[in-house]
């Protein structure tokens, strides 16, 4: 059955299903002056984030909008560079701030999923090599412990790290994010340390808070062989999937749930010279403003692949840049249709967080891409709900 033949408002989701949006501190808060990103932005190596969406001051209004469009959950991140602006110096003001943020979420009926680290580092730690060193791992465990101790009562779900593989790839292999390095050795080392960082933070949170849900946000693409029934293409896909699950295989004992960030369809063709080539799909697919192929069905396939880990799954990110908001409505309908189908196939999916609530700072692409359910006018920071945001009430208030 194709999604278009299906009246989406009839979709049945399990009781307690979380329907939310996600965001990260550096991308929305503004003035993240003690972070490594801010530093590189001032040096002119990255677009300036400046005030971003001024979510730091406008969080209450933003959560009000989330509630108004029918969401019952939000995934935010806590900014390490604010909590520990100097090594070992913990900011009481930052803790007070995040307490207010988390209470405001609760007051707006939003279940609170909190990510401890969404790519930015305190500048002092970046200067010492960040996650290249064991010291970075230890510092992260201390930070996790401190946040659990001080904000633990206000958090419903913990996400230790956001997309460790993508961070490592962009910062240490492709050199387009800080610290702009190209090194296979460091790629391996940072990845390994992030695995340890996750385990250490998991332990710290459990030690402080006992049995609270702790997971990770993991990016997984939908890999497909470019040529059907081609052994070599299929073999490459097999290797990609193996590598894709490497992280989860290494941490599955320290994981109460899997957070899936799904964005990509990747069509792969074996190639004698380059090993593989990434191909454009033959199918007439739409794409986002960033040129990413829109393939909602892919989330179904990825979810089926994740079933073997026997963990609850939350879709912690999924979305598209669509300034005109002309592809987002169908994209959302189709994605929710395919998630629903995965649930019918007994995949334990318990929530969906759209990326993102508002337009925001899209890392090295600056403020160009518009991912938001809510548009931001960067001249005056006015928020305007986009029509596609209606879908949540249509599907979930039945
Ligand atoms: C990241 C977000 C980012 C989104 C869209 C995800 O990989 O976690 O921070 O904005 O992709 O590019």
Automatic annotation (TrEMBL):
<dbReference type="InterPro" id="IPR017853">
    <property type="entry name" value="GH"/>
</dbReference>
<feature type="active site" description="Nucleophile">
    <location>
        <position position="317"/>
    </location>
</feature>
<dbReference type="GO" id="GO:0005975">
    <property type="term" value="P:carbohydrate metabolic process"/>
</dbReference>
<keyword id="KW-0326">Glycosidase</keyword>
<dbReference type="InterPro" id="IPR018120">
    <property type="entry name" value="Glyco_hydro_1_AS"/>
</dbReference>
<protein>
    <recommendedName>
        <fullName>Beta-glucosidase</fullName>
    </recommendedName>
</protein>
<dbReference type="InterPro" id="IPR001360">
    <property type="entry name" value="Glyco_hydro_1"/>
</dbReference>
<keyword id="KW-0378">Hydrolase</keyword>
<dbReference type="GO" id="GO:0008422">
    <property type="term" value="F:beta-glucosidase activity"/>
</dbReference>
<dbReference type="Pfam" id="PF00232">
    <property type="entry name" value="Glyco_hydro_1"/>
</dbReference>
<comment type="similarity">
    <text>Belongs to the glycosyl hydrolase 1 family.</text>
</comment>
């Amino acid at each position: 059955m194709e999604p278009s033949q299906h009246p989406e408002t009839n979709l049945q989701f399990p009781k307690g299903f979380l329907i939310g949006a996600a965001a990260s501190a550096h991308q929305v808060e503004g003035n993240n002056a003690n972070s490594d990103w801010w530093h590189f932005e001032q040096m002119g190596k990255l677009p300036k984030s400046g005030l971003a969406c001024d979510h730091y001051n406008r969080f209450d209004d933003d959560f009000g909008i989330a509630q108004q469009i029918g969401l019952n959950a939000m995934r935010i991140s806590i900014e390490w560079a604010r909590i520990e602006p100097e090594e070992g110096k913990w900011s009481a003001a930052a803790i007070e701030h995040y307490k207010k943020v988390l209470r405001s979420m609760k007051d707006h009926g939003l279940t609170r999923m909190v990510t401890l680290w969404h790519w930015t580092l305190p500048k002092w730690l970046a200067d010492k090599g960040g996650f290249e060193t064991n010291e970075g791992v230890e510092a992260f465990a201390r930070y996790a412990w401190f946040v659990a101790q001080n904000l633990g009562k206000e958090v419903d779900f913990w996400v230790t790290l956001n997309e460790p593989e993508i961070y490592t790839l962009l910062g240490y292999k492709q050199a387009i994010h800080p610290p702009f390095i190209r090194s296979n050795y460091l790629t391996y080392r940072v990845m390994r340390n992030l695995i340890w960082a996750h385990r250490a933070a998991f332990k710290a949170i459990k030690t402080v808070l006992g049995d609270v849900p702790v997971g990770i946000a993991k990016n997984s693409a939908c890999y497909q062989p470019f040529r059907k029934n081609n052994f070599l293409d299929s073999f490459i896909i097999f290797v990609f999937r193996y590598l894709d699950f490497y992280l989860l295989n290494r941490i599955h004992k320290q994981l109460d749930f899997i957070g899936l960030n799904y964005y990509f369809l990747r069509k792969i063709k074996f190639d004698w010279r380059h090993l593989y080539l990434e191909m454009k799909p033959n199918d007439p697919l739409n794409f986002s403003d960033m040129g990413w192929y829109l393939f909602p069905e892919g989330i179904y396939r990825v979810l089926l692949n994740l079933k073997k880990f026997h963990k609850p799954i939350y879709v912690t990110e999924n979305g598209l840049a669509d300034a005109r908001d002309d592809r987002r409505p169908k994209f959302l309908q189709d994605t929710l249709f395919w998630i629903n189908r995965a649930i019918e196939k007994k995949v334990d999916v318990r929530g969906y967080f759209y990326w993102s609530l508002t337009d925001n700072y899209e890392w090295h692409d600056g403020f160009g891409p518009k991912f938001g359910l809510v548009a931001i006018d960067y001249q005056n920071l006015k928020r305007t709900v986009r029509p596609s945001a209606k879908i949540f009430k249509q599907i979930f208030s039945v």
